[in-house]
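writing this on my phone so excuse typos. first protein, seq and then structure
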Amino acid sequence: MQHPTPPQDFWSRQANAQSHSLAFAPLGTPAAITANDPAVLAAARLSAGRYSRAPNVGGRPIRVSIVVGAQATAPVPPDLPDRLVYAGLGHWLTVSAGEWGHGFANRQTRQAFVFLSPALAAEPLLVSRYFVDHYLLNLLMTEWAMLHASCVVDAAGRLILMVASHNTGKSTTALRLMRAGHTFLADGMALLKADGPGLLVGGYPIGEVKLRDDVLALFPEYTGDAVQVREHRKTVVNLRAAHPAQVAESVFTPAAVRLLLVEQGAATAAEPLTDRAQMLAAIAPNTVFWDEPVALEHNTAILNRLLDAARAYRFTLGPDPAQIISAMEALE
């Protein structure tokens, strides 16, 4: 029996067919980004470079499907990140960019769907950070715990995690440590996973750092793309170009962990911390919050394993960069 040809593509299924794809493995998790327009995969390629790699690829795969529509919209406003609206219900997560696009994902099926206007699809940096990475991170964090921190690794393989409020100086300190010989893991998130008795550690975003204009002035040799982050204009510096041998590209098991609760002060000083409740209270605002008990317990269990492995310090950043580096290197 010959079926009649539909008179029109009413639901745009033919126009939206996912005929282009990019596969990669953030933190060793298989991920496929598909699209109906090959140009939008430029956003996926940007995202692929921001996650630590792993020698063994496995686990439950993630799929993000991107549809670029045909309907014209106004140009994308420069404050679009501030206009995004996030919502969730059960396993569902949504983000809306108004007339420029929207997306939704299911954490249980590990699938996300993103619908973009042509104007937003032509902005790969925005699509990568606020749609592709938004969903990749949320789906990855069903298995990995997260801690907001600036992270470097010293020559002995010790992981140094610097936790602090915004604009305290942890990014600047991480860069100074890298320039003193440490390896740069991430200036954003440490991603943690139990691995037998130990911990696997990865980062996001790797290979880049976002610097305010006043901080960038301290490193005049760095250049990059300007982005708006909350109330600040920042420059995204490509560290792979500036320091190709000092970027940690892969997940690893650290030889030891130093957890630094960073603050600014008149002089550099390191004070050991042993109060477990105090440490948990300090890192609690810097981790992910799930409202399902099982997910929250999983995240907290991994963070407790981190505290088991770490030596913690209250670390005060004084004005002398050389003293900061010396104090960091002298930590037991």
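second protein below, same order as before
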Amino acid sequence: MIIEFLKKKDIIFSAKRYGIDALGSMAQGLFASLLIGTIIGTIGERAGIQILVTIGNYAKAVTGPAMAVAIGVALKCPMLVLFSLIAVGGVANALGGAGGPLAVYVVAIVAAEFGKLVSKETKIDIIVTPAVTITVGVLVSIACAPSIGAAAAAMGSAVMWATELQPFFMGILVSVIVGVILTLPISSAAICAALGLTGLAGGAAVAGCCAQMVGFAVMSFKENKWGGLFAQGIGTSMLQMGNIVRNPKIWIPPTLASAITGPIATCVFKLQMNGPAVASGMGTCGLVGQIGVYTGWLKDITAGTKTAVTSLDWIGLGLICFILPAVLTYAIAIPLRKNGWIGENDLKLDL
């Protein structure tokens, strides 16, 4: 009886539905709000166009609702449930702090399924369905979102611990950890901002984020062409999260690349993020990470701690952020494809 009712409501408890469909859709919601808003806002700031900054801020303000609705679409929610998730996403993202996206993911799934349970079961559906969806979503957010945020912050503490090590090992750990966080449904930018992650540690974080974004963009070019290259390369590698759940081995090449570029950034080029800490966790998203490094150079020159931006600075930035992530990830992926660890269309995105 219960099984038949759940089937009628299209409530399917499966790894594919929650781990692949919902995650993949949520990443697109994140891209269509926070990330595109950051890109537009950064362009506006650098070009001195205030209206673009305003547009970017409005886009970033609806990050939670955008992700929640995207998850609702993946779960095939009825219209009233889908619209009610707007409020749920806003609350979950706000209470989740640094773990906002992860909180939205958990809370939106629970709220959506409860909403689907009561949808069209009464004559006052227009009242019952939104009431149940929003109430469940807010209550679950209050109960769980702060803890999810604390768990995300704990990951940030691991990054801070890594900064206390020698530059070589710190470069590896920070690059890998922050890069992985960037691809997970957790806000690496928020964590870096909360920790004030700048200096050499910030440079290593930039390296790790770039390795994930540029790495996945180049490695999956065969499957996703130019759309995928730009969506991941200047958008987010989180778009691959659904595919990672399906086949975790696809995460190996960019993660190994980050373990290589991190210490090169800290030990060879002494790459530092002395711009805003939030830029440490942005990678190549809208080129915010690179603009942050450049802003730091100008700040250091003004402060007298740096005489000029040198050719070596630009070479290091280009190698760490673009060339090495692309070359290393692509090269590491070749034997994995030949051995069948990465199969045909394992990196395919629904763009």
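The chain has 15 helices and no strands. thats all i got for now
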